[in-house]
Design goal:
It is built from two helices and no strands. With 74 residues, it is mostly helical. Residues 55-74 are annotated as: Disordered.
């Protein structure tokens, strides 16, 4: 099967012997994940902004309706 302890020892040995190669490999492996995280964060921020804008629009509409009803009663 897969020996996790032996693999971990290999990775530690590799990191100790060739630290720049190890860091480069880790950086290259993680870069797509960082990019995906940035894109998803940006999309989430845009969705939140759109939702807040829509809520403000609805609130303003409700305020205008209430104001019109008050003026109509007078």
């Amino acid at each position: 099967m897969f020996d996790l302890k032996a693999w971990a020892e290999y990775v530690v040995e590799w990191a100790a012997k060739d630290s720049y190669g190890f860091l480069t490999t880790v950086f290259l492996a993680l870069t797509p994940l960082f990019l995906a995280s940035a894109v998803l964060s940006w999309k989430l921020a845009k969705m939140i902004e759109a939702r807040e804008k829509e809520q403000k629009k609805k609130q303003k509409r409700q305020e205008n309706i209430a104001k019109a009803k008050r003026l109509k009663k007078d």
